[in-house]
Amino acid sequence: MPKPRGPLSEWVSARLATPVDGGHAPSADEWDDECIALWTLHEMSYRGFEDAADDAEWQPAMLGVRRELEVALEQRLRRRWPGASADVTDVPAALEALVTADDGPSLADHVRRRATTDEVLELFRQRSVYQLKEADPMTWVIPHLPTRAKAALVEVQYDEYGGGNPNRMHSHLFARGMVAVGLRAEYGAYVDDALPETLELNNALSMLGMHRRLRGAAVGHLAAFEMTSTLPSRKMVQGLDRLGLDGPMAAYFDEHVEADAIHELLAARDICGALAEDEPDQAAEILFGAFTCLDLEARLATALLTSWDAA
Amino acid sequence: MTARPEVEEFDHPDVVVVPHGPMLLRGATSVQGVDGTVHDVRRPVVALCRCDKSSRLPFCDGTHKVIPRR
After folding, report:
1. pLDDT value at position A21?
2. Does residue A2 lie in a domain region?
3. Cα separation of A246 and A252, whole Å?
């Protein structure tokens, strides 16, 4: 399990290692503590940990802590959202407008023009927390959707998972890229290095994926993610070439230029558009999810660029 | 005869021309570009460039998003 970062994550790790009924979790002393505690709890629903008891995933005390942390996280995310205009009729157009208006800082621009090799490797360590399980949080959403949106999401996920070929699975392409640039590729290898911004981004995605209530926000997040991937992925390829890091990691981003040019259209039109037509009350939620994706990415970018004196 | 309730038949075209965007093509196994080169297709859906500005023709690379719309 990851190294605890405060009293709450310490309590969570101890209870996951040796499940005990009852007892009260201490409060987190910092945001960082809260982030790693929720990340660890969520991870029990993905691959788990060698040093955690598998049945602790559904242990009531653990679910109680997960719930409290998720409520706080969702409140944080909703407070930042300015809201959608009252009547969103064309969801794909509203998504495009949101993404076009986004002026968050760009890590890809920095990588393309100026980043040092150390900075790029730091970025990959941060990204690896998600990229080594790329697409997994969105798989939770499939059974939450009506027929058309479900079929479209499966079409995207099938491609994310390499069309059934493990060698072409995106998370596996990233793992190969990590090794090629001299980093570790085991699942969760760099969680202890993850900034709270990285963990929060991952926690939000897991929460949106797992909660049926948040299905609209989940697919909105997917759309914004895919819609802001193609051009930045090209810049990443250019930056990696500049640094002589061409090879499997550049190939990973190169694959995303082509794949995400397709996925962004399927996500905006066939997943989000169809969901909003079938369940009109989800339209605003889709935009909330899209905003959240852009907002959390911008916060991570700001944190990294600031630490590199490049903000 | 009493009519049975209908379960909807959805549109699911193999070719979709996206406004201000590429052409989505489902189920293709190979695509020939303007230079005659035949490209293998290994994904369920591909996006073919319609703006002619892609750096990886015949496939879309998103470039249409940064050129002014006609």
Report:
1. 78
2. no
3. 10
Residue A1 lies in a domain: no
Q: Percent of chain B beyond pLDDT 70?
A: 96
Quick check: A231 and B21 CB within 8 A?
A: no
Tokens of A301: 């970018």
B33–chain A Cβ distance below 8 A for any pair: no
Within chain A, residue ranges assigned H as helices are 7-17, 31-43, 60-80, 91-101, 107-113, 117-131, 136-139, 147-160, 170-180, 196-210, 215-227, 230-242, 248-265, 274-278, 283-307
| A&B contacts, CB < 8 Å | 54
A198 CA to chain B: closest CA distance, Å?
27
* Chain A residue numbers touching B62 (CB-CB < 8 A): 230-231, 234, 257, 260-261, 264
Q: What residues of chain A lie within 8 A of the CB of B20, using their CB?
A: none
Please report the ipTM that was assigned to this predicted complex: 0.90
| Minimum distance, in Å, between the CA of residue A17 and any CA atom of chain B | 42
Residues of chain B in contact with residue A230, where contact means CB-CB under 8 angstroms, are 61-62, 65
Q: pLDDT tens digits, residue range A215-262?
A: 999 999 999 999 999 999 999 999 999 999 989 999 999 999 999 999
Tell me: do A74 and A107 sit in the same domain: no
- Candidate from A147, A257, A265 with C-beta closest to B61: A257
Statement to judge: residues A30 and A159 lie in one domain = no
Same domain (yes/no): A74, A95? no
- Asked if the peptide bond before residue A7 counts as cis, ω within 30 degrees of 0, the response is no
Out of B47, B59, B62, whose CB is closest to A231?
B62
Contact B60, B47 (CB under 8 A): yes
> What does the alpha-carbon distance between residue A101 and residue A96 come to, in Å, rounded to a whole number?
8
Residues A176 and A293 in one domain: yes
Q: Which residue has the tokens 């999810």?
A: A289
Question: What's the confidence (pLDDT) of residue B39?
Answer: 95
Q: Give the total number of structural domains in chain A.
A: 2
- Do residues A65 and A97 share a domain? no
| A226 and A114 share one domain | yes
Which residue range forms the structural domain that includes residue A29?
7-79
Q: Which of A49, A79, A109 is the last residue of a domain?
A: A79
Mean pLDDT of chain A: 96
Q: Using the 3D structure, point to which of A25, A59, A79 is the last residue of a domain.
A: A79
**B1: pLDDT strictly greater than 70:** no
Q: What digits encode the pLDDT tens for the residues A75-128? A: 999 999 998 877 788 999 999 999 999 999 999 999 999 999 999 999 999 999
